[in-house]
Structure formats: structure tokens, C-alpha cells
Design a protein that fits this description.
By secondary structure, the chain is α/β, with parallel strands linked by helices. Helices cover 33% and strands 17% of the residues. It has 13 helices and 19 strands. The strands form 4 sheets. Strands 3-2-1-4-5-6-18-19 form an 8-stranded mixed β-sheet, with helices on both faces. Strands 11-10-9-12-13-15-14 form a 7-stranded mixed β-sheet, with helices on both faces. A two-stranded antiparallel sheet has the order 7-8. α5 links the parallel β5 and β6. The radius of gyration is 22 Å and the shape is globular. The protein binds nicotinamide-adenine-dinucleotide. Nicotinamide-adenine-dinucleotide (NAD) binds next to α6 and α7.
């Protein structure tokens, strides 16, 4: 069986799906690994290192895609500069494992189904302890949360820690993190390490203890409705609950030097939590990092990929933060993929047991069908026969 590692073509994507260390593990297992020339270059993994790990370096992109039995990628397949769509380069019956953005790009999923590709969307790995080592959403969100705090610290015209110096005492920066999921918790931990005083809010009250265990204060808002959906994710709440949340967080936003927002509701536009009025109340020089800028934004006025200044407040809308740390992002993603590949392939054969929740939850297309019901709904396709 041939495992192919493609060079990413998405603008700004510096990660690579496998690093040399993970290649050698697959090779030891008897799998053949083909790596596109230069695939790891942007993440500082040279072709020579892949070769030393036992991979074959392939310079002909189309040949690599056509021959791979299992193609590994980071970004969803897309049209290449030469006009060819990556999906069309795969042979019928091939397997693709990658981020696929299934809910954001159902048309791309349909294309994979039409090509008869067996596609696994890495963002659909169940958030269970059994699947933890395959959970790329978590590994990449951790990197993003860390980097968001560093970006905020670099943009803030102040110190983070409290300092007592001969030139006077410096008060610590006040950081408010909204959304304490994987990214938010890492943002909190990083801000604490840098010496800031940190507060956090999340619509899921269950995260209170995690926030407190990192040395941050949890901002409590009592809502009279269920805020947690299946799988432990946040639910979209009523307008009344949104209003109450906004009123409760306004005071904390106003007093913060830095606000980092990470709130997401899977498959929906990001909730709007920080309003223009709140921004107007912040001290000039304060910084907002809106990690949900690409999903519509938690903060009014944020723009994906841009820094916007409003009333002296810098609102940063970073995109693809994991890609800004391509070495560790690739290392962690590769480990997630390695675990999944080893789980799927036994003795050189792809085992598709759809009774298994990891396989059935993650496999989006197989044998010409879109298997994921939420994607089918978006495509207007009827419920799949069992
Ligand atoms: P996410 O990226 O979907 O959302 C980020 C955070 O935003 C979440 O904590 C969410 O509650 C919060 N949020 C949503 N709407 C909000 C609002 N209106 N106001 C404030 N906060 C809001 O979340 P995630 O980091 O991917 O984690 C989602 C869930 O998955 C969590 O329950 C987490 O504990 C769980 N999880 C489990 C495992 C595991 O068991 N292996 C691994 C990772 C995550």
C-alpha cells in the first residue's frame, strides 16, 4: 500500500501532513511512503530527511496523487494553479485523509463522493478519550491559543507581568478570554505564564474548574437554558441569553487590556459577543484578538487577516494560526494522522468497520456516497440507507 504526502497548495499553508519521524514508523510497518518534493520545506523538514526516513521523493505531482492508495494532506483539496482540481487527481477508490471543512464546503465533499474517494475529515474525529491521540482539532487549537496570546502581547503597548523596578512599579496586564475550549484554555495558560491577571468566560459552566485550575478567574453568567449540545460542544443560545451574556461580559471587556475571543458553535456562524459599544469603552491601546474572525467574528468590526483600529483599540483577526508555527503544528498533526492511519490499516489493508464510532464518524464519503448526514442535509440529499 502506498501512502502519499502532498505538498500543500493553499495560500499561506506551511504545515505538512507527515514529518520524517512519522514516515519511518509507517515504513517500519511495511507501508510504502511517497512524499512530494518540497512538501515539508515550509515547515523546515527537508526532502533529504524524508528520504533518510525511508520515503520516496516524487517530483511529479500528478503521478503522486494518481498512484497513492492513501493520500495525506492538511488543507481540503482545491483547484491548483494549473487549473486542475486536486480531487480529480486521485484515482477512483483512493483514500484521502485531511481537513475537509465538510460543513463549510459541502460541494467539495460531493466532488469527492463523485470521484468515488473514501474521504476522512480529520475535523470529525470524535472528541472522546479513545480518539484523543487522533484529535487534530485539539492539537491545532492548542497551538492557535498559545499564538493568539503572543500576538496580543506583542501588540500591547505594555508589559504583561507585574514588575517592581527602580523606575517604579508596573501593574500586570488584565487579560479576558472569552470561550474556554481547547484554544481558550491554552490562551489562558500562556497569558498566566507571561504574568498577566486573567479572567475567562464560557457559556459552558463545566469549564469553570479548568479555568480556575490555570489560575484564572471564571466569570459566571446564570442562564435559564441548556447551553451544551451533544458531544460536549456549545449550543447556539436564544437571543435573550445572548443579551444577558453581553451585558455580563461588557464590564469585564471594559476593564481589560487584552480580550481574546475563541467562541465557536460547530457548523454555525461564530456568536457575536463583543460589540462596538464595548470596544468604545475600552482604554486606547487595548488589544482584541478575535480567533473566530474567519467564522464571522466574535467581535464587531474584526476582519479576517487584518488589524483594524477602532477608538485606539487594535482588533486583530488572525487566520490559520497553527500554520505560523509549522514545525510543531506539523509534528502534532502528523502524530494525529499516524495514529489514525495505524488504526485504519491492518497488515497493509484498509479496514472499514462502520460499526466503529471513530471510522463511521470521520468517514465522509465512501463508494460514491456522502455518508455524513449533516453534509447530506446541506446538499439536499435524502437520509442515507443504513
Ligand atoms: P469550540 O472551538 O467549538 O468552541 C470554543 C469555545 O467557545 C467552547 O468552549 C464553547 O463552549 C465556547 N462558546 C461557544 N459559544 C459561546 C458563547 N456564546 N459565549 C461564550 N463561549 C462560547 O470548542 P473546542 O475547544 O473544540 O471544544 C469543544 C468541546 O469538546 C469541549 O466540551 C471540550 O471539552 C471537548 N473536547 C473533548 C476532548 C476529549 O474528550 N478528547 C478533546 C477536545 C475537546
Amino acid at each position: 500500500m502506498k501512502i502519499g504526502v502532498a505538498k500543500e497548495v493553499e495560500m499561506g499553508e506551511r504545515r505538512v501532513a507527515l514529518i520524517p519521524d512519522t514516515v519511518s514508523r509507517l515504513v517500519k510497518q511495511g507501508l510504502e511512503v511517497w512524499v512530494e518534493a518540497g512538501a515539508g520545506e515550509q515547515a523546515f523538514f527537508a526532502d533529504a530527511a524524508y528520504e533518510a526516513a525511508g520515503a520516496t521523493i516524487v517530483t511529479d505531482t500528478a503521478h503522486l496523487w494518481r498512484e497513492a492508495d492513501v493520500l495525506l494532506k492538511v488543507s481540503p483539496p482545491r483547484e491548483r494553479a494549473d487549473g486542475q482540481h486536486e480531487t480529480d487527481l486521485l484515482h477512483e477508490g483512493a483514500t484521502l485523509i485531511s481537513f475537509l471543512d465538510p460543513l463549510g464546503n459541502p460541494g467539495g465533499i460531493k466532488r469527492l463522493a463523485d470521484r468515488k474517494v473514501t474521504a476522512f475529515g480529520i475535523e470529525l474525529i470524535p472528541r472522546t478519550s479513545r480518539a484523543q491521540s487522533m484529535d487534530a482539532l485539539s492539537s491545532q487549537a492548542g497551538l492557535a491559543g498559545y499564538k493568539a496570546t503572543l500576538i496580543a502581547a506583542a501588540a500591547l503597548p505594555k508589559f504583561f507581568p507585574m514588575l517592581t523596578t527602580a523606575a517604579g512599579t508596573i501593574a500586570p496586564a488584565k487579560v479576558f478570554v472569552i470561550g474556554a475550549g481547547v484554544a481558550g484554555l491554552q490562551a489562558i495558560a500562556t497569558a498566566r505564564r507571561l504574568g498577566a491577571v486573567v479572567e475567562a468566560f464560557d457559556i459552558r459552566p463545566a469549564v469553570k474548574e479548568e479555568v480556575q485550575s490555570l489560575g484564572a478567574k471564571f466569570v459566571e453568567v446564570k442562564l435559564e437554558e441548556e447551553t451544551v449540545a451533544a458531544g460536549g460542544y456549545a449550543k447556539e443560545v436564544s437571543d435573550a441569553a445572548k443579551q444577558k451574556t453581553q451585558e455580563a461580559i461588557a464590564e469585564h471587556v471594559k476593564l481589560s487590556d487584552i480580550v481574546i475571543t475563541t467562541a465557536q458553535v460547530p457548523g454555525r456562524k461564530a456568536p457575536r459577543l463583543v460589540t462596538g459599544d464595548m470596544i468604545a469603552q475600552m482604554k486606547p491601546g487595548s488589544v482584541v484578538v478575535d480567533m473566530a474572525a474567519e467564522q464571522g467574528g466574535n467581535c464587531e468590526g474584526s476582519e479576517a487577516g487584518k488589524d483594524v483600529i477602532r477608538n485606539g483599540v487594535t482588533i486583530i483577526g488572525p487566520t490559520n494560526l497553527p500554520s505560523t508555527m509549522p514545525v510543531h503544528a506539523s509534528q502534532m498533526y502528523a502524530k494525529n494522522l499516524l495514529t489514525l492511519v495505524q488504526y485504519l490499516i491492518k497488515d497493509g489493508v484498509l479496514m472499514l468497520n462502520f460499526e466503529d464510532d471513530i471510522i463511521s464518524g470521520t468517514c465522509v464519503t465512501h463508494a460514491g456516497e456522502v455518508r455524513n448526514q449533516r453534509v447530506r442535509d446541506l446538499l439536499g440529499e435524502p437520509v442515507a440507507a443504513k
